[in-house]
Amino acid sequence: MLQNILDFVFGRLKPSDFVHDPIMAGAGFAMVGALILAIIGLTYFKKWGWLWRNWITSLDPKKIGVMYILVSVIMLLRGLADALLLRAQQATDGSAGLLTSDHFQQIFSAHGSIMIFFVAMGIIFGVFNLIIPSQIGARDVAFPFLNSVSFWLFAAGMILINAPLIVGEFSTAGWLAYPPLSELQYSPGVGVDYWIWSLQIAGIGSLLSGINFFVTILKMRAPGMTLMKMPIFVWSALTSTGLIMFAFPILTATLGMLSLDRLMGMHFFTATGGGNPMMYVNLIWAWGHPEVYILVLPAFGIFSEVVSAFSGKKLFGYTSMVVALLAIAILSFTVWLHHFFTMGAGADVNTFFGIMTMIIAIPTGVKVFNWIFTMYRGRVRFATPMLWFMGFIVTFTLGGLAGVLMSVPPADFQFHNSLFLVAHFHTMIVGGVLFGAFAGFAYWFPKFTGFTLNERLGRYAFWNWIVGFLLAFVPLYILGFMGATRRLDHYDPSMGWQGLFVVAGIGVAIICVGVFFQLLQLGYSIWKRNDNRVGSDPWNGRSFEWSIASPPPEYNFAVIPTVTQRDEFWELKKKKHGSLLKSHYEDIWLPKNSGLGPIIGAFALAFGIAVIWHMWWLLIVGLVGVVVTLIIRLTSDETEEKMTAAEVAKHELKRGIV
Amino acid sequence: MKNVIEEAAVQQKKTLGFWIYLMTDLVLFASLFATFAVLRGQTFGGPSGHDLFNMPFVLLETMILLTSSFTAGLAILGSNRGYKKQTIFWLFVTFALGAAFLTLELTEFSHLVSEGDGWQRSAFLSSFFTLVGTHGLHIAIGLLWLAVMIIRLIRFKFKQTDLNRLALFALFWHFLDVVWIFIFSIVYLIGGMA
Ligand SMILES: [Cu+2]
User: Fold this and answer.
1) CATH: 3.30.2020.30, 3.40.630.10, 1.10.238.10, 1.20.210.10. Which one for A47-594+639-654?
2) How far apart are CA A460 and CA B62, in angstroms?
3) ipTM over 0.85
4) How far apart are the CA of A180 and the nearest CA of chain B, in angstroms?
5) A interface residues, B as partner, C-beta within 8 Å
6) Interface contacts A/B by beta carbons within 8 Å
7) Over the stretch A66-110, which tens digit does the pLDDT of each residue have?
8) How far apart are CA B103 and CA B175, in angstroms?
């Protein structure tokens, strides 16, 4: 009787699920400890109200953007710790017994999933939120409440993917959980379910956010800003969100089907019952390849902004940049099969996808040349954002060439599943997306804080990163040629691989020093902020975000600017009447704060936990909770409040800009 | 209150956003259709579509759903011209037809399961239940939406914001109709061939 009640309440959760090996338990304790410290701190300094009113319930995209970035930074540290463990295990060839095979597999699955979904995606959406409205001369996004829901779904997914450190286990099936390994028969535990539902919930958030920014860009540009007058970052965001709209529904469907296999005994991808695991591999890469471009196109956009700002020139070949973005976006849906040339689709199919993959290198090459021509004869200032750009050009070109090499199907039969591939995609994602994020962080940081980051520490961070990065991944290219496959938790010493693995391990350690300098840079810059105060336009920027105060007021623009040409702000500055402000203000409508976004996130989290642990009552609670909260929100009409023209004038006066 | 121009801009954004949402939903259905197409022949020794589908029954379902789309259109016409009673009447009819469709679909499902031809039987049946069931789930959500809307239209006497929502609902309902046409042709007609 008691057992029945316990089973009903807790599903398949048992006390033993809380028991972990020392490393995981340590990480779990550290996480819980940090959380408890934060709670004590908030209570002691009486900051709960402030947190709730100014952040959690806020619908201001700038606040939401900062929260995205904060989560991404924390997740970057988690992913880095995972990487360090993986490298330590391989540098010692597994003989030191640092990690068990099972734990090693959980870590590489977590490392990949976290870095893509909760670091890279989080950064992209953070930057979208922070930059897009002010670059197009808008006060807000198209759907402010939906934006909040997206963020809290992202946060719920983040909690779910970290929960295995405390309760249960994570997936051991890799970052894309190929069946039949990820099916119930071979992975009966909660690990794969954690993976599915953390990605599913965060992924739906990403999809909604993609729709939101797509509509924002199409519908909310300042008067006169035609599509071809948009800043290039906005173009990159438009193409990226376009890809999200086509790719993420495929992920939703695929994860849904895998989950139905596991929960309801269906046979989509099982080895028995007529299921077809290869269908999963096709579907997941039909999402997965565009996903790469969803991440890297905005990074291209950031670099384009940085290069033209720090070269003091307009971007070279704007139109060809736009065409290249569109070409990449379209082509990215025609290459997914290059992830599994070895699956046996036959020579004709492989050839087609191989050629398409080679073709996609052309628009990418166009972009690289445009950036270089932008610098040509410019007055290049080598500030940290520019250093990250230079690092990116080197690593990205190197990694890109490796990619073209792998697009040749016969060659790919050698590289498939080898460390060569691992080195390739890390060169692209770290060298492209992450370096882009770092460049953007240093570039836009003063816009949102009013002071710049310390340059010297930034340089230290960059040089540690680039040296560590090359040391960490060049050996993997070589190891790949030597036959080392990915996901090895131990190997025979006679393979002669250990030296290179040690070098790679040292590389990661140097990257950690770089990260340490980044954290130091952030802390030091905040501490010494009064020495680094800058005005609204510290870099002599080109687009509208530099025309408004730093940090910007909640409404961004007291007066919406009018656009007649590309780089309007820059052109106005040249003509010496830089002030876009007029004394005539109008009433501004701003969205009211709403606690319903975080509540929906909480119910979604409950739903996720319920599905993973088979607590069916909680599943009903989560589902009904989400639906009822949505109905409450969707049927309420008074969701905005007016800031009168007089109040706007008062705000602007207080900032000393009239 | 916002002025008329501001309201119109908000409504434009919502309409575009909703269209885009519908397109993403279409991609989701496309993934399920593709999976069905691949797994259609994987009956694993069990029954095929030809053995299971009762075409007159499916045709009845189809006619009911198409009619409900028509009555939803009549409701919109009514609301555009300000005929409140007519609007409410046709919305009720739409709801009844939608509910009838859903009942028929669940009847078909429970019949299959009781015959031992549930979703666990074969990959073909897994993909069948999932594709058709996802459409059914959308219909259920649509019915919930419709119910809330009928209550609000009556209670708040046809407020403009509710009329805007009604227009979006009609889009959603027609969209489900289009998806059903595809299900009818690909799942039942092609999938039901010997
Ligand atoms: Cu790819």
Assistant:
1) 1.20.210.10
2) 68
3) yes
4) 14
5) 142-143, 207, 211-212, 214-215, 218-220, 245-246, 248-250, 252-254, 256-257, 260-261, 264-268, 270, 272-276, 279, 283, 286, 589, 627, 631, 634-635, 637, 640
6) 113
7) 999 999 999 999 999 999 999 999 998 877 778 899 999 999 999
8) 20
